Amino acid sequence: MKNRRKPRELAQVAPRRHKLWQPKIRTKNMYEVRVSEALKREGYIVARRGWPDFLAYRPSDGDIRFVEVKPPGKRLSPNQALVAEILRSLGARVEVTS
């Protein structure tokens, strides 16, 4: 198995002659956390995980449903159950199928 290094470690061992090479450092997550925290301060429940696998939309009649696919015998995680409950309370159809 290859020894994987973190981006900062890679930057330290990268050859100096390759000035254009820069490690990928994720900054998007930092901004997402800030937005999430701001929404929570405003009283929102913020669900980043637990969304159903599919959003199905039928343009002919405007039908929308959320579908979560689970292997037989598996249950929804607590986050998935919370998101499903919120969507149902808003009138959305949520289905769990295997």
Q: What does this 3D model show about the protein?
A:
This protein is an alpha+beta fold. The protein has a domain at 54-97. It is 34% helix and 17% strand. It is built from three helices and three strands. Strands 1-2-3 form a three-stranded mixed β-sheet. The chain is globular and about 35 Å long.
Task: Describe, in short, the structure shown.
The protein has helices spanning 7-13, 28-41, 78-89; strands at residues 54-58, 63-69, 93-97. It has 98 residues and is α+β, with helices and mostly antiparallel strands. The protein has a domain at 54-97.
Task: Lay out the secondary structure.
Elements: H1 7-13, H2 28-41, E1 54-58, E2 63-69, H3 78-89, E3 93-97
Parallel strand pairs: 2-3
Antiparallel strand pairs: 1-2
Uncertain segments: none
Strand content: 15-25%
Give the helix tally: 3
Strand order of the largest sheet: 1-2-3
What string, H for helix and E for strand, traces the elements in order? HHEEHE
The rounded distance between the terminal residues' Cα atoms is: 34 Å
> What's the overall geometry?
globular
Computed over alpha carbons, the radius of gyration is 21 Å
| Major β-sheet annotation | 3 strands, mixed
Keywords:
single chain, 98 residues, alpha+beta, three-stranded mixed sheet, 3 helices, 34% helix
